């Protein structure tokens, strides 16, 4: 592909551009969906497992923290590994580890063994986003990267919608062990397609010269054969810190949306969580729209001739403002008003997420992208460990005072300002998102 003969090159140049890169996005989307499906099975089986094993809330929280801590720790290592061994093998290792760990939950016998399996699951699942972002950088020019990222990132939201439907059905038909086995096995099915379909654009025979030239239309140097960057070196670069703080300040908000929204609706509006909840389905469906729409917006600005950094930062500033109406949730009088405000905020988060991931590939050469995403993801996960502690303190204090809703109101105010703060810090560290020359 890099050096086609003149006759072939002429034919390919004149031929319509192939679109194989979108098949790659489909693979990334399915992997991310499975990633979040496997992640949510334990939470959905919580009442059953609590009854079987006699867990307290503290026992369950320790199991959840085992996943979070392992996930945060693994992100740095996985990013560096993927930059060294490449996306194809890197994804294989990640999916194999997390799928085996997901299935082994079926043989767990207590708090310690479940915590151990969750830790292994976290180690494997940490590879998903570093690989996916690197693959997007390998297959898409900058003007399409945010849209591609938004599409595969929406798999997280699809997983959040599918899991509450799929897991209870398996539980009722077969049992909790089979729920872990069946959902965990989906990763191995996906691996068959990944291994057969994924290659770098230069090695993929289904890509013609026109698409190859389009993918590389940014004229970025090919660094695939260069030695990977040492991740400690990346901490000396201010663009790394822009990405780190952007993730650390906003990722915890998403974890809050995932883990506390059901209990918020139950406590504030008496939502019955033992039945299907259209309110939650609407919230998570909105995030899919936000993820894809957010990726489209910055790409639209770039196609209109805007500089990449201006398109990304303008889009992210818009999304930061769109989160702020969530602070008005304290004034809602019925659940559907709250659903609208929270859906807007959750959708804006995913739109933000699609763009902040893309800033890593905008600012760094492809050989360093996975490492940077791993560092930023680790920072976001650390925030995801610390923020729940703050949430717990706030909610417990307000509940003790007899004001259940007051605690959530304080948290929604924090959510409303978090993205503007993150945008300001990112702008401070990298005003024009200059390209890093390593």
UniProtKB/TrEMBL annotation:
The species is Dyadobacter beijingensis
Main localization (coarse): membrane
Which Pfam families does the UniProt record give?
MFS_1 (PF07690)
Q: Which SUPFAM superfamilies match?
A: MFS general substrate transporter
Q: What is the lineage of its organism?
A: Bacteria, Pseudomonadati, Bacteroidota, Cytophagia, Cytophagales
Q: Keyword annotations for this protein? A: Membrane, Transmembrane, Transmembrane helix
Instruction: Indicate where this protein resides in the cell.
Output: Membrane
Q: How does it sit in the membrane?
A: Multi-pass membrane protein
Which protein, by its recorded name, is this?
Answer: Hexuronate transporter
Instruction: Give all residue intervals belonging to the Major facilitator superfamily (MFS) profile domain.
Output: 24-434
Q: Which gene encodes it?
A: exuT
Give TM segment ranges: 20-37, 60-82, 89-108, 114-133, 145-167, 179-198, 240-261, 281-302, 314-332, 369-395, 407-429
């Amino acid at each position: 592909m890099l050096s086609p003969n003149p006759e072939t090159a002429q034919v390919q140049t004149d031929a319509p551009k192939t679109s194989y890169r979108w098949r790659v996005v489909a693979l990334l989307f399915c992997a991310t969906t499975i990633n979040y499906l496997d992640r949510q099975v334990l939470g959905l089986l919580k009442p059953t497992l609590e009854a079987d094993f006699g867990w307290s809330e503290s026992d369950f929280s320790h199991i959840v923290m085992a996943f979070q801590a392992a996930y945060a720790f693994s992100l740095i290592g996985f990013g560096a590994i993927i930059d060294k061994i490449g996306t194809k093998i890197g994804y294989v290792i990640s999916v194999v580890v997390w799928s085996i760990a997901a299935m082994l939950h079926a043989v767990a016998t207590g708090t310690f063994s479940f915590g151990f399996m969750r830790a292994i699951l976290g180690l494997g699942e940490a590879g998903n986003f570093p690989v996916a972002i690197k693959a997007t950088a390998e297959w898409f020019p900058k003007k399409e990267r945010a849209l591609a990222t938004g599409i595969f990132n929406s798999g997280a939201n699809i997983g959040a919608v599918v899991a509450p439907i799929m897991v209870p059905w398996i539980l009722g038909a077969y049992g909790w062990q089979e729920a872990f086995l069946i959902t965990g096995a989906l990763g191995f099915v996906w691996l068959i397609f990944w291994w057969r379909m994924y290659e770098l654009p230069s090695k993929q025979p289904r890509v013609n010269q026109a698409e190859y030239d389009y993918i590389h239309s940014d004229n970025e140097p090919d660094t695939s054969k260069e030695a990977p960057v040492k991740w400690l070196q990346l901490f000396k670069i201010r663009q790394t810190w822009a990405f780190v703080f952007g993730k650390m300040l906003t990722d915890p908000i998403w974890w809050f949306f995932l883990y506390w929204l059901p209990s918020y609706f139950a406590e504030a509006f008496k939502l019955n969580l033992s039945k299907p909840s259209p309110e939650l389905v609407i919230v998570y469906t909105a995030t899919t729209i936000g993820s894809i729409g957010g990726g489209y917006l910055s790409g639209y600005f770039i196609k209109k001739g805007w500089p990449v950094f201006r398109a990304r930062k303008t889009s992210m500033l818009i999304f930061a403002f769109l989160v702020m109406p969530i602070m008005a949730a304290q004034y809602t009088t019925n659940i559907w008003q709250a659903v609208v405000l929270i859906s807007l905020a959750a959708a804006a988060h995913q739109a933000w997420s699609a763009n902040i991931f893309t800033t890593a590939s905008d600012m760094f050469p492809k050989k360093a992208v996975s490492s940077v995403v791993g560092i930023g993801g680790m920072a976001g996960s650390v925030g995801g460990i610390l923020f729940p502690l703050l949430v717990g303190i706030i909610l417990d204090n307000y509940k003790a005072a007899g004001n259940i809703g007051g605690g959530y109101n304080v948290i929604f105010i924090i959510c409303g300002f978090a993205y503007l703060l993150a945008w300001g810090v990112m702008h401070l560290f990298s005003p024009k998102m200059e390209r890093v020359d390593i």
